[in-house]
């Protein structure tokens, strides 16, 4: 910026005594004619001054910066309207003082090259006075005026040192408001001088792209009472058309959103980029200036003429790092910009920031948190080029869906579909877990997700069931029949093109929502006009509406023939008819369809069981002729005496149940026949049983760890069933086997059998009969509770999904204690599972085993195994999906039914039919009422059928008053079977959906009655529902009001293995239970002290009055706390209870759950 600069110039005024209006008195230049210069001056006139007004905010001179285009060339100019040097001589014909205007302009390119700021422009021309300009034509002959500007930094770099920088907040808001229209700046005393005002205008211009310099007209004063064309100018507050900004206290915008005008969006963008270490203060630039530029994921400033490189500014929070970077980006944007297209200005800066962050992310200088912060802080479109959201998707968490929704673009659809599937189906969540993160998402996003989920595979394979379930959930909640017609029509047409997918959506919809809205969804699908789909829709239209028609056999044939979903769809049709009270409209066609199905192949046991449940919903009275005809078609047997029943008391017309299998009393001496084989290569045994055991032993024993001499009792042991009625125990070089049926009848536990066989092998005797004693089943149940019921249940449930490895067990954990853990796990599964399962207490190769203690966390064969870390006990990790998750939840529910672990263990020990966990039909048996663990131990209530009816009505959307709903839930919880408890859970979910559950649970918690057993089951069931649904204020008030109920809630949480949720310091349940006074009831204060790592006195007498379950909860909380906290408290509690609660303490010592704390307890384990 050296040398001289040529200016077009003009002097506007009047000759003394002139009567005509203002005109050009003289002008010069090579590019613009005087008439053009006059039009520019008049176009950007700031109004007419009232006088010199020295010392006032509107004092002359008024300095106006113009932006005009002539031909194809943009010009930047300055007009200086000033009081004449001799006012007495400068008057017109009317005697008014003539106020001249000096005007200078130059092409925009020259302005940028030689000047670069309003300040430099004004300083360069202000030396050319009016008198000089009057003489100039005589000297130059009307040529351009050549002036030598003073050396000064460019506008953007100068802003970093400008005295106006302390008004950065006001400049940000002013620049942002300029996108939406004219802005008037209040003439505050701090900006009283012309130089200060011009510096502020330069700062505003620097916060706009350089391409806007050809469109930005600004001034040090404008008369807002007159019409003007200045975009930004200082002026009086007279209620003019422009937005008024006080630079010392700029206005604040509300939270930005995509529907805002451009001003709040651009202000948010600038504020975040300048001060990105925290979210923008709603466009007002919160924190701008002092802390601007902390690490926000922006690139270091490149060389924009802003001085030396400041790449360290961001990493160390230098004060102007963020501002320097933003000014550099804006300086580089020289593409011509117009205020008539403000979106382009916003988008240009947004694109630059997004692309820069993407570059930094690729180079490893920014991470997912930078992406989240950037997308969360800014309104849409913060990612106009679509580069940031795809980078975030591989790292996305559920809450990131909010960001995806905010910055949605159609091109994101495939990746977002994969994300939703990963977060739900693969992440073990249901759609409702994500719904809160998708509030406000555009319908186009939901429609695109559904379309992608329902897209057939590469080989035209149907979409997986979990994808269809997700699609149905989204249609149910956000679109379909209630959505925008144009948006959802392509999705509907694609869905209706496949009868199977249509039925999948309907089945899922009915399973989750029931009847409400179903007919509307069916009519929406029917509007697609697909003939092949109309046939499968007709049963739903007939049964879900008010039609008096009946369903025909061809309709059911079409439904049942749907590939992969026909059976489930038929069951849904049957249940829909039952819920809608239209059984008569369906039964004739259903009877014909079932006849054809039975004629094709008899119903299997599993299929018959499923259809029995569905027919019970269609015809609840099994004695009805229609129900009996349908039952015969699916192969239901006639009423007969049987072991397993829904209730223990017979109803009219049913045979009395048989007594369960007898079990020998604990301590009874028992002899079990024993056979022995050597696993090592040798001649095969002569007997068939021996040969089979020998082959299996050779498979299982090679990896068994040997910790002592051959045959020693410290060796690892293997236990397996051969699937043919034999149960074997093996060491590394021996194997003993016995009959499974006799073993189960004897009551001998796995631990006793394993230790006796190992002792015989060690002695070398290998007897043909093992001398044993029947185990005390109550002690086994106590072992389960000592290990942690939830943790043991999680392992048992995990076995249904695949093999499980227990890793990290300490060397001090003996073989007997490992056997006790394995026995506890198997005790929570039907006893018949022993027929084919293989387990081991110690192995280096866990691959062949369903359950194994091992040090090998990784399996070389790539086999997928669930890893359970011994050190994590007693915390429970719920299996993420599949049969395991369902069984885990049902075990917790069954524990609620039985009210103690021993009753549950006994019920499971009575099911001795052989089971194979790799057979789906057997797994289904484990999850139904066939499993004796899921049969009520109490007689049925007379009101049970009424409660079931109330549940069905609620599922159909017909709610009753709160007391009636509470009474129905109470009956289902207190007097029904496991099926009724599952119905209660579904019932509660429906009530929660309609925000009716909180008050009902509070009623159940407060309820009492004369039947203590039923009251206890009601309370326990209410706590189970609380765990599944979460609690509201009504439940909270009830628990705070009833300390005994609150203690039961903590017991329930610890029993289920939910310890992390207790910690008061982290806002857990204990804090939630704290009343407004801040003082917990004494027993809860004990739990709080145990859950907090800080030392505190513990008075167990406060818990003793609540029974051993409360003391057990205290022990487990202390045990869990020592995982990360200081040791000693668990041992202290064990010592304190050793003499008053010996059975409780002995269960921890006997099982090994006490760990290293066992040494601190005096006396041997019992």
From TrEMBL:
List every stretch annotated Disordered. Answer: 283-320, 641-664
Superkingdom of the organism of origin: Bacteria
Q: What is this protein called?
A: Uncharacterized protein
Please note every region of biased composition (Basic and acidic residues): 283-294, 301-320
Q: Which organism is it from?
A: Parafrankia irregularis
């Amino acid at each position: 910026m050296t040398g001289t600069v040529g200016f077009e110039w003009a002097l506007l005024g009047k000759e003394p005594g002139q009567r005509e209006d203002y005109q050009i008195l003289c002008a010069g230049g090579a590019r613009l004619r005087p008439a053009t210069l006059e039009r520019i001056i008049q176009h950007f006139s700031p109004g007419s001054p009232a006088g010199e007004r020295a010392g006032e905010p509107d004092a002359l001179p008024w300095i106006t910066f113009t932006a005009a285009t002539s031909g194809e060339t943009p010009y930047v100019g300055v007009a200086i309207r000033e009081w004449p040097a001799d006012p007495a001589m400068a008057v017109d014909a009317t005697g008014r003082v003539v106020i001249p205007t000096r005007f200078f302009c130059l092409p925009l390119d020259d302005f940028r090259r030689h000047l670069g700021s309003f300040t430099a422009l004004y300083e360069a021309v202000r030396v050319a006075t009016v008198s000089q300009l009057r003489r100039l034509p005589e000297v130059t002959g009307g040529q351009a005026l050549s002036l030598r500007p003073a050396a000064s930094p460019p506008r953007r770099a100068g802003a970093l040192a400008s005295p106006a920088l302390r008004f950065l907040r006001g400049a940000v808001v002013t620049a942002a408001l300029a996108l939406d229209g004219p802005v008037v700046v209040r003439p505050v005393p701090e900006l009283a001088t012309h130089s200060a005002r011009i510096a502020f205008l330069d700062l505003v211009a620097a916060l706009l792209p350089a391409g806007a310099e050809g469109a930005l007209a600004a001034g040090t004063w404008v008369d807002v009472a007159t019409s003007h064309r200045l975009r930004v100018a200082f002026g009086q507050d007279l209620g003019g058309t422009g937005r008024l900004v006080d630079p010392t206290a700029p206005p604040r915008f509300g939270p930005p959103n995509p529907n805002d005008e451009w001003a709040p969006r651009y202000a948010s963008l600038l504020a975040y980029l300048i001060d990105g270490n925290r979210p923008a203060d709603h466009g007002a630039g919160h924190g701008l200036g002092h802390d601007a530029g902390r690490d926000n994921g922006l690139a270091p400033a490149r060389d924009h003429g802003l001085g030396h490189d400041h790449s360290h500014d961001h990493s160390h929070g230098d004060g102007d790092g963020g501002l320097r970077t933003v000014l550099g980006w804006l300086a580089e944007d020289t593409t011509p910009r117009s205020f008539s297209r403000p979106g382009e200005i916003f988008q240009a800066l947004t694109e630059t920031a997004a692309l820069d962050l993407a570059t930094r992310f690729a180079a490893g200088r920014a991470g997912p948190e930078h992406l989240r912060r950037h997308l969360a802080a800014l309104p849409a479109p913060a990612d106009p080029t679509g580069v940031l959201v795809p980078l975030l998707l591989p790292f996305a968490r559920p809450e990131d869906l909010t960001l995806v929704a905010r910055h949605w673009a159609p091109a994101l659809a495939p990746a977002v579909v994969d994300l939703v599937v990963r977060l739900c189906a693969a992440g073990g969540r249901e759609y409702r877990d994500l719904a809160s993160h998708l509030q406000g998402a555009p319908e186009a996003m939901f429609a695109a997700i559904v379309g992608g989920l329902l897209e057939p595979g590469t080989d035209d394979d149907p979409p997986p069931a979990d994808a269809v379930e997700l699609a149905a959930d989204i249609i149910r909640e956000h679109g379909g029949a209630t959505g925008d017609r144009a948006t959802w029509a392509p999705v509907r047409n694609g869905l209706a093109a496949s009868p199977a997918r249509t039925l999948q959506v309907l089945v899922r919809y009915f399973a989750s929502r029931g009847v409400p809205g179903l007919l509307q969804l069916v009519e929406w699908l029917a509007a697609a006009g697909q003939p092949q789909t109309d046939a499968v829709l007709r049963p739903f239209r007939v049964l879900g509406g008010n039609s008096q028609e009946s369903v025909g056999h061809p309709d059911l044939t079409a439904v049942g023939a749907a590939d992969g979903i026909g059976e489930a769809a038929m069951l849904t049709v049957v249940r829909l008819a039952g819920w809608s009270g239209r059984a008569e409209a369906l039964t004739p066609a259903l009877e014909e369809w079932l006849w054809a199905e039975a004629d094709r192949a008899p119903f299997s046991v599993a299929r018959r069981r499923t259809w029995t449940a569905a027919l019970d919903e269609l015809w609840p009275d099994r004695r009805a002729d229609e129900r009996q005809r349908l039952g015969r078609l699916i192969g239901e047997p006639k009423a007969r005496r049987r072991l397993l029943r829904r209730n223990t008391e017979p109803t009219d017309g049913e045979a009395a149940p048989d007594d369960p299998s007898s079990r020998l009393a604990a301590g009874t001496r028992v002899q079990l026949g024993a056979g022995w084989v050597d696993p090592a290569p040798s001649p095969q045994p002569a007997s068939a049983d021996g040969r089979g055991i020998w082959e299996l032993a050779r498979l299982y024993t090679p990896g068994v760890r040997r910790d002592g001499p051959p045959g020693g009792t410290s060796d690892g042991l293997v236990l397996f069933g051969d699937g043919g009625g034999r149960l074997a125990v093996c060491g590394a070089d021996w194997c003993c086997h016995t009959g499974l049926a006799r073993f189960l009848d004897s009551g001998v536990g796995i631990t006793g059998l394993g230790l006796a066989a190992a002792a015989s092998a060690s002695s070398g005797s290998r007897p043909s009969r093992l001398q044993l004693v029947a185990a005390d089943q109550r002690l086994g149940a106590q072992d389960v509770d000592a290990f942690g019921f939830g943790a043991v249940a999680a392992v048992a449930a995990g076995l249904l999904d695949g093999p499980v490895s227990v890793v990290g067990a300490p060397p001090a954990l003996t073989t007997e204690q490992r056997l006790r853990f394995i026995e506890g796990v198997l005790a929570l599964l039907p006893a018949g599972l022993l027929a084919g399962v293989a387990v081991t207490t110690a192995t280096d190769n866990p691959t062949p085993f369903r359950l194994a203690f091992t040090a090998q966390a990784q399996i070389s064969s790539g086999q997928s195994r669930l890893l359970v870390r011994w050190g994590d006990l007693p915390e429970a990790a719920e299996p993420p999906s599949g049969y395991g998750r369902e069984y885990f939840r049902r075990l917790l529910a069954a524990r609620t039914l039985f009210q103690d672990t021993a009753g549950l263990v006994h019920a499971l020990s009575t099911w001795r039919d052989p089971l194979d966990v790799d057979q789906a039909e057997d797994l289904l048996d484990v999850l139904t009422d066939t499993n004796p663990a899921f049969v009520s131990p109490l007689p049925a209530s007379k009101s049970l059928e009424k409660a079931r009816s109330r549940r069905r009505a609620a599922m159909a959307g017909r709610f009753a008053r709160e007391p009636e709903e509470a009474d129905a839930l109470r009956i289902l919880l207190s007097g029904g079977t496991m099926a009724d408890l599952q119905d209660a859970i579904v019932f509660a979910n429906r009530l929660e959906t309609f925000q009716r559950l909180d008050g009902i649970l509070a009623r159940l918690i407060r309820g009492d009655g004369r039947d203590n057993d039923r009251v206890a089951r009601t309370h326990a069931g209410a706590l189970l529902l609380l765990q599944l649904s979460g609690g509201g204020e009504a439940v909270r008030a009830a628990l705070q009001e009833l300390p005994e109920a609150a203690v039961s809630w903590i017991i329930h949480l610890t029993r289920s293995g939910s310890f992390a949720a207790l910690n008061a310091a982290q806002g857990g349940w204990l804090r939630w239970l704290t009343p407004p006074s801040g003082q917990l009831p004494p027993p809860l204060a004990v739990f709080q002290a145990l859950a907090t790592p800080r030392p505190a006195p513990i008075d167990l007498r406060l818990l003793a009055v609540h029974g051993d379950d409360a003391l057990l909860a205290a022990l487990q909380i202390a045990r869990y706390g020592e995982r990360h906290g200081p040791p000693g408290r668990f041992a202290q509690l064990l010592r304190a209870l050793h003499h008053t609660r010996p059975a409780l303490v002995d269960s921890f010592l006997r099982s090994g759950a006490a760990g290293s704390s066992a040494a601190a307890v005096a006396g041997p384990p019992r």
